[in-house]
Structures are given as C-alpha cells and as structure tokens.
Amino acid sequence: MRVEQIWSNARLATLRSDLPGIGVVEDGLIAASGADIVYAGPRSDAPAFEPGIAHDCAGRWITPGLIDCHTHLVHAGNRAREFELRLEGASYEEIARAGGGIVSTMQATRAASRDELVAQALPRLDAMLAEGVTTIEIKSGYGLSLAHETKMLEAARALGKARGVSVATTFLGAHALPPEFAGDPDGYVDAVCDGMIPAIAGLADALDAFCEGIGFTPAQVRRVFEAAAAHGLPVKLHAEQLSNLNGAALAAEFGALSADHLEHLDQSGIDAMARAGTVAVLLPGAFYFTRETRLPPIEALRRAGVPIAVATDCNPGTSPLTSPLLAMNMAATLFRLTVNECIAGMTREAARALGRLGRVGTLEPGKRCDLAIWEIEAPAELVYRIGFNALHARIWKGQP
Q1: Core-most of 39, 127, 291, 358, by most CB within 10 Å?
Q2: 3-state secondary structure of 173
Q3: Spatial separation of the C-alpha atoms in residues 386 and 122, rounded to whole Å
C-alpha cells in the first residue's frame, strides 16, 4: 500500500477512547497521505506500506499535536505594571478605577491596527507552537465594538495563515462593558445581539461570554446565547470563576461546547454539564496568577463523567501564560489531575471542547496528521518537568 509518509519505531499515546488510559502502543507506526492519518497502531498489525518518506523515530514518543482550547492570544500591550502594583498592595478594584484592567487592554487593542495585533501576537503563538501546539482557540473580547471585535477576529484568522496552525475563532463581545455604555449593560447586550453577532457570525467558529458579577448576568447571557443560536454559532462560557451564578447550567441548557474556569461550580451545574456533554475547561494559569484558593470540584466532575480539558487561558491580565506544558504541570500540582488527565486534557478533551474531535485530538485513521514527537522516556515527563521542552518535532497536516 503506497502512502506518502510513515513514522516507525515509535511509542504512541494514541488517546483513542476505545483503549485504556492514553491509548499506549509500545511498538507503533503511523502512516499518512496528504494531511490525514491512514494508519496508527502496532507495527505488527500494519499493512505492507510503501512510503515516499520513512521517518525512524528511534523509540521516541508520539502524541497528537497539543490543543490549547482557551486563549485570549490577540491583544495589544500588556499589564505588567498592574502586576507590579498588585505586588505593592493595590487591589484589582483600585487598579480598575484608575483605568486599568480590561479597559486598559481594550484601549490598547482599539488603538492597534490588525497588522499590529498580528505582530504582537506572533511571539506568543510561536512560544506555543514550539511546545507542540497544532490547534489553538483565539477569542476576541478586547475590542468591545463591532469594528474592533471584527479586527481581532481577522487578526486571529491571519495568525493561522502566517503559521502552520489551525485557529478556532471565538467571538467574546460579552466580555466587559465598554466605557461608552457605562451604566447601560442592557444597551450593550442589545448591541452585541442585534449588531455584532449578525455581522461577525461568518468570522467566528463559536461564541463565548463572561457570566459573573463583574461581567454579565445570566439573563443577559441567555439573550446573547439565543442570538448566537439564531445565527448558528455554538456557545461556550466563562462560568463560576469568582462566584456561582449557575452559568454552567445555563451553558449546558444551550448545549455548550464547554464551560470554563469553574472554581465555584456546584453539583447541579455538574449534573447539567454531564447531561449535555459540555466539557469542563480548567485554567490553572489564572488560578495561580490571581492566587485563588478555591479549587474546581475535580472529584465531582470525575464521578459525573464530565470530560475535563486543560488550557493556558493566555491573556494579559490574569494568565500571561504561553506554555501548554506548564499548564499541564499546574493542572497536576494545583488541581491534582493525573498525568493521563493532563495529557488527554491538552489533546482529546481539548478537541472535544472546540467541537473538533472528529478531526483532531487522537491518533486514528481519518484524523488529521497533527503530531507532537517527544524526546522522553515516559509520558509522565510531559507533565512532571517545569521549564523544559522535550519536543523533538511538530507535524501539522503531515508537514513539519
């Protein structure tokens, strides 16, 4: 059987759901033609392939390419000075009143051109690609007007063209209240529902919102979700990060792809997510950076069978993290996820959280040939090490 490429003499973490754990195959082989996997499994079971190119992996491990399913990668400026002020004793509220917080990033983002946003995001994206990321979600949410939210989504799409990576775009217009709508959150929700969503639907793969006391109420989010559904946009939600407003249950009601953060999630929200198949996306970088102490209900999520993904939440204010490997370590050390949960959380379950499990996230025939090849002796090293990148090669759509 003729194929374009094979990778042999490899140990595979296939992440196949029909195999235990992370689907380990000790003496494995992957064959690909074009951008897709033709075979992934034991070398002894493989057909007699005639490859155009044969790669000897010398016993290295291959996982699916990593997937970062929650980022705010596109933005202008940074908030390092605010970080410094917090260390000196200033509160988040004091900083926000002085023009900091999301409004600060909004002002910098509005002032930047699309090309400037791309240029500023590229180093952050390159850091992630260097650790094996092949699919990344990028949200808007710092423009907070039709023109600037459109600019952010266009920049996210441009990043996918500038680098060999698949970009899933998410419209996050309901992120914060812009100054021009001060005191009129319902008026801004009207603008999101009636003006932004119809105009932006073609640029976004999904819609997100921030359901929180400092964000938007469940009633306002419901309106946004209804408008998203009317325009065929899947939804996800920043939920239960700082308080429990039953956002996860609301998201599940709309069949949300994911509910993210979840430190204050209760059992009713967990049960709703389990029924809907909504993925729990854990964001340990934000938990660490904001010095949170309330843990997400990991054991209850496990008992309910809710899929668990892990992401960096790369953003300028609460998680300036561009390392998916460190995010996995944080998920293990802070949230006590197992090694298998962390690896699945950055591959198979992250793909599920983006609605892309049919194409990426596991090593199986018919899936896209997105691979991360690692110089490790055991998969646990991907979670155990801090500040060390064991990536040997990254393959996207069959190409290095």
Answers
A1: 39
A2: strand
A3: 23
3-state secondary structure of 21: coil
Smallest Cα–Cα separation from 142: which of 222, 75, 69? 75
DSSP letters, 36-52, are: EEEEEEEGGGS---EEE
Residue 11 contacts residue 379 (beta carbons within 8 Å): no
Kindly report whether the global pTM for this prediction surpasses the value 0.70: yes
CB-based burial label for 33 (10 Å; 0-12, 13-18, 19+): middle
d(CA 297, CA 292): 14
CA 162 to chain centre: 19
Residues 110, 107: Cα–Cα separation, whole Å: 5
Q: Quick one: which of 231, 226, 183, 185 has its CA closest to 205?
A: 231
Give mean pLDDT, residues 376-399.
98
Distance separating alpha carbons of residues 148 and 152, to the nearest angstrom:
6
Structure-derived torsion over alpha carbons of residues 104, 354, 225, 186, reported in degrees to the nearest 10: 0
Phi, psi for residue 41 in degrees, rounded to 5: 175, -160
Return the SS3 of 251: helix
* pLDDT at position 90 over 90: no
Mean pLDDT over all residues of the chain? Answer: 97
Tens-digit pLDDT profile for residues 26-55: 999 999 999 999 999 999 999 999 999 999
pLDDT band at 133 (very low <50, low <70, confident <90, very high): very high
How would you label 163-182 residue by residue, b for 16+ Cβ within 10 Å and e otherwise? bebbbbbbbbbbbbbbeebe
Is a pLDDT exceeding 90 seen at residue 294? Answer: yes
Q: What kind and span of H or E run contains 5?
A: strand 2-13
